[in-house]
Amino acid sequence: MENSIIQNLLKKQEEIFLKKFIVGNKKKEKFYKEHGVINILSPGRVNIIGEHTDYNLGLSINTAINKYIFITGYENKTDYVEVFSKYLNDSNKFSLDNITFDKNTSWINYIKGVLKEYIQHGHKIGGFSIVVDSNLPIGAGISSSASLEVGVAKFIEELFNLKVDKKETVKYCNSAENNFVGVNCGFMDQFSVAYGKKNHVIYLNFKDLSYEYIPFDLEDNLILIINSKEERNLANTEYNKRRKECNDAVQLISKITKDKNIKSLSDISLDLLYELEDKIPEKLFRRVKHVVTENNRVLLSKEYLLKGDIEKLGQVLFESHNSLRYDYEVSTEKLDYLVDKMSKIKGVYGARLMGAGFGGSVISIVKKSKIDSITDIIGGKFFKKFNVSPDFIECLFSDGTRRVKF
Ligand code: GLA
Question: Does the predicted TM-score (pTM) go above 0.90?
């Protein structure tokens, strides 16, 4: 089923590619032979648990999902990169000799940033032409940007035969987003996209990017993403504020304890935190509490996953949401409303806001057989209250970014 859906999408993608670059089907075989056309499938990601832990060198459980960006293209033997985005119905062309930030076309910067990273690291790349399409909604908090970055990285690695370790790919893409695009995100998104594995989730330690795959066969269940459609306007500023608060807390705690081994909030235990409660400003205390308890929730979730206890895992998701809401303060009225209503519906194991917060999506684990009633109830209630229909995205776990044939 899943394979035939992908095949159909790829057929569509091939048609767009042929129309754009080859003019018709006739010359296809000859063109493919001469140019070695490459096709990449790059997934989005979900984060099951472990929010705002990546830049605190903590833990999370995340993975890739079966919603994708498609990249198809070939080496054009010029110094130019030519991109047609079917999804956005927009084109762009730039020279590899002069890669500069584009103030007017934000999406192209993800591609430019990745190419710049590879060039700066001494990789030899030439011009190419690509078509990009997607069934991965932009702005829903399922990492279309990381998917595009890792997809483009994989495309040039295949096209120019670059030998790059997968962890390096993740680092280049993350650096492109931090340093070229200007979004100060952690490693979670790019890692999930690159390392996803069908029917598994990734237990990831951000201290050294070590990871384990944990089997998670959804069987009669589904991951349901609910996109509140609330724009994450504040996300960037507030995200950076949280990062700064975390750094300040590390400085303060290592100063009070005179312990030089405390280098991140993930080096602090809950016991130590409570011992220091009177010595830390109340707001900082809550920020640290979220990170420390969230790491503990990841450990607990790992245990439940290994035992196959989805009910208990779901409860941990609700607890994570409360911590993000009250201690880390990154939730919104709409996200709280969704999680609250979900918690009262039969067939919902757990739900919580996903990603940076301040809008975007809620992730939930639900019974497949109840999906229609869940979406009806939530869709209806949410519309009545906010006059907006949320989007529902059903997903399964998928392999990471990969090369595929038409
Ligand atoms: C955003 C960032 C991630 C991570 C999450 C919060 O999605 O891109 O790196 O920090 O927020 O967990």
Answer: yes
